[in-house]
Amino acid sequence: MKKNNFFIALFFIIFFILKSVKADETKMIQGLEIFNEIAGCAGCHVLKAAGAEGNVGPSLDSLKPTEAEVQDMVFYGLGVMPAYGEDEMLTKEQVDIVSFYVANSAGK
């Protein structure tokens, strides 16, 4: 009986880990699309993982910003960078997704 409980618990642990990995993969794919196509971040920023070679904004590979830093910058903008969230060019969900993508891609 204890052996069966162990295998059941192990199954659920593996299931939730794989589910989490799949969710992160989906966010990365969506984040790349937002970065390159929807928001056009690649036109201004360097981000090797996205194939971006912009020269207007800072290199995200050099900055290696945290997810919270990206969220703040994308939502409110700074200088010539538009406020994508505040001006409703991106939804809150899109801001969160592209922030996750950048934070997990920068410098890699």
UniProtKB/TrEMBL annotation:
Residue ranges occupied by any Cytochrome c domain in the UniProt entry: 26-106
Species in which this protein is naturally found: Pelagibacter ubique
Q: Which residues form a coiled coil?
A: none
Could you list this entry's UniProt keywords, alphabetically sorted.
Heme, Iron, Metal-binding
Signal peptide (from-to): none
Q: Could you tell me what this protein is called? A: Cytochrome c, mono- and diheme variants
Any keyword ATP-binding? Answer: no
- One Pfam family name is Cytochrome_CBB3
Q: Which residues cross the membrane?
A: none
The keyword Iron is assigned to this record: yes
